[in-house]
Automatic annotation (TrEMBL):
InterPro entries in UniProt: Hid-1/Ecm30 (IPR026705)
Annotated organism of origin: Macrosiphum euphorbiae (potato aphid)
Name under which the protein is recorded: Protein HID1
Region (Disordered), start-end ranges: 1-28
The organism's place on the tree of life at top rank: Eukaryota
Annotated Polar residues bias: 7-23
Residue ranges crossing the lipid bilayer per the database entry: none
GO cellular component: Golgi medial cisterna; Golgi trans cisterna; membrane
């Protein structure tokens, strides 16, 4: 978020009545351009797809049955299925572990931390000079 937006939002979110300061004429108000700029950034594709399919179905049920109570609509939505409506999720990529110096150092540090922490009681590490070392192949 931009600093300007956060400042404006914090001013907008203040619901406490202030009688000591008069209203500022230059008070921020959302514009069509501002709404469009945020709407483009929101991931609304899935929600819009659901609405395109479900709204006509709900309207048809309301007209056919003459519903004015929302309980029947809620039952319809609860017992419905979204199979075929939502996009197919991306396939899961399975990658084989490939060692590199960074992951090797992380794994070694993690393993030594586990060994050290699991052997604190009884205190076998006290009064010792444990040093980590690595043997490099030439």
């Amino acid at each position: 978020m931009t600093k300007e937006f956060m400042k404006q939002s914090s001013n907008q979110g203040d619901c406490s009545p202030t009688t000591s300061s008069p209203k500022n004429d230059a008070e921020w108000a959302p514009t069509t351009e501002w709404v469009r700029s945020w709407k483009e950034k929101l991931p609304l594709q899935t929600i819009m797809r659901l609405l395109q399919v479900l709204v006509p179905q709900v309207e048809k049920i309301c007209i056919d049955k003459g519903l004015t109570d929302e309980s029947e609509i809620l039952k319809f939505l609860q017992h419905g299925t979204l199979v075929g409506l939502l996009p197919v999720p991306h396939p899961i990529l399975i990658r084989k572990y490939q060692s590199n110096p960074g992951t090797t150092a992380w794994f070694r540090t993690y393993m030594w931390a586990v060994i050290f922490l699991r052997n604190i009681d009884p205190p076998i590490w006290y009064d010792t000079e444990v040093k980590l070392f690595e043997i490099q192949r030439m």
